[in-house]
Design goal:
This protein is of the alpha/beta class. The chain folds into two domains: 6-166 and 323-359, Quinone Oxidoreductase, Chain A, domain 1 (Alpha-Beta Complex); 168-299, Rossmann fold (3-Layer(aba) Sandwich), CATH 3.40.50.720. It contains eleven helices and 17 strands. The strands form four sheets. Strands 3, 4, 5, 8, 9, 16 and 17 form a seven-stranded mixed sheet that branches. The chain is globular. The structure holds NADP nicotinamide-adenine-dinucleotide phosphate (NAP) and zinc ion (ZN) (2 copies).
Amino acid sequence: MNTPDTTLMKTRGYAAHDKHSPLVPFTFERREPGPRDVQIEILYCGICHSDLHQVRDDWGGSLYPMVPGHEIVGRVTRVGAEVKKLKVDDLAGVGCMVDSCRHCPACHEGLEQYCAEGPTWTYNARERGREQLTFGGYSERIVVEERFVVKIPPSLDLKTAAPLLCAGITTYSPLRHWKVGKGQRVGVIGLGGLGHMGVKFARAFGAEVVMITTSPAKARDAARLGAHEVLISRDSAAMAKQAGRFHFLLNTIPNPHDVNPYLALLKRDATMVLVGLLTAFEPSLQGGSLISGRRSLAGSVIGGLPETQEMIDFCAAHKIGSDVEMIPIQSVNEAYERLLKNDVRYRFVIDMASLKEAAQP
Ligand code: NAP
Ligand code: ZN
Ligand code: ZN
């Protein structure tokens, strides 16, 4: 699938060299596009909380040097001879995956994120069958096989489209899978990058949407984003009043937390889906929280390539984009600190033109 190591392109980006150091300018090599590859000049890249988790090695096993970034949008600059769906000058996006086994049942179904052999992540991974690290979107260009590239319609504002590649699909996919829609009362927990997209999609699908947040200061924004109601999760009396009233909950909290009060919000037979990669519940999950209402606790990871294209096209048709704060790449370390302090409305997006002003390593 990959071209030999002999044809490589020098590429500039920003990298973390270990879990304690800030991101710094970094030059590395990408392969020249092979017959099925698309080369994209990266214009914008969103900052996902997963970038921060991986840079700081929160999940263990991080690989350095790490060029993060999996909310990538840009312009196609070269295509291989066998590429069919994209041509030079098209707008294109790359999300969390750049490869998968292609032959397992999940890959056949277009659910590459559940590939039996594990997908190849856009960064913090090794290319399939090789030692070469993958490098993400905090960089000037990327080369990806066309199966893992989506087409961005020109009607979408590219800056607000970047976060769709992760925050968008990660919330769209479970809402679709659990068939959230009209007549359902749906709670989105955590108003950050994922949560604000969850509210927009749940509203667009016709559900009655409740934003469940720890931050009373975000109430007005929640309403603007499409929430019908706001529930402050730290207000135990308000939480108690809402017990047993939800058909579905989408939990985007990035840190260990007590899931029991949230599960109590579910109706009988209803489901709460986790998308945050948590290592622990604190305090632990109580069996009674599930047993008492035949409730389910489930998880979901991003979405496959066909569904990612479907989500992008849905956003174009319904004029949905992310609420973004644009930053130059030189501010990436400050943005990480602000993300940790819950100070983002609601996604940082890096303007990659700023890379031209970055110091050469
Ligand atoms: P984010 O922008 O930082 O938003 C997270 C929100 O959760 C915060 O804005 C805050 O909202 C709430 N929150 C934070 N700490 C909390 C705590 N201790 N207790 C309760 N609420 C808390 O993060 P994000 O980019 O949306 O990512 C969220 C999580 O999803 C991360 O763990 C990320 O790694 C993960 N993720 C998973 C997938 C997947 O495929 N499963 C994909 C992308 C990201 P309020 O102020 O409203 O409470
Ligand atoms: Zn992400
Ligand atoms: Zn597979």
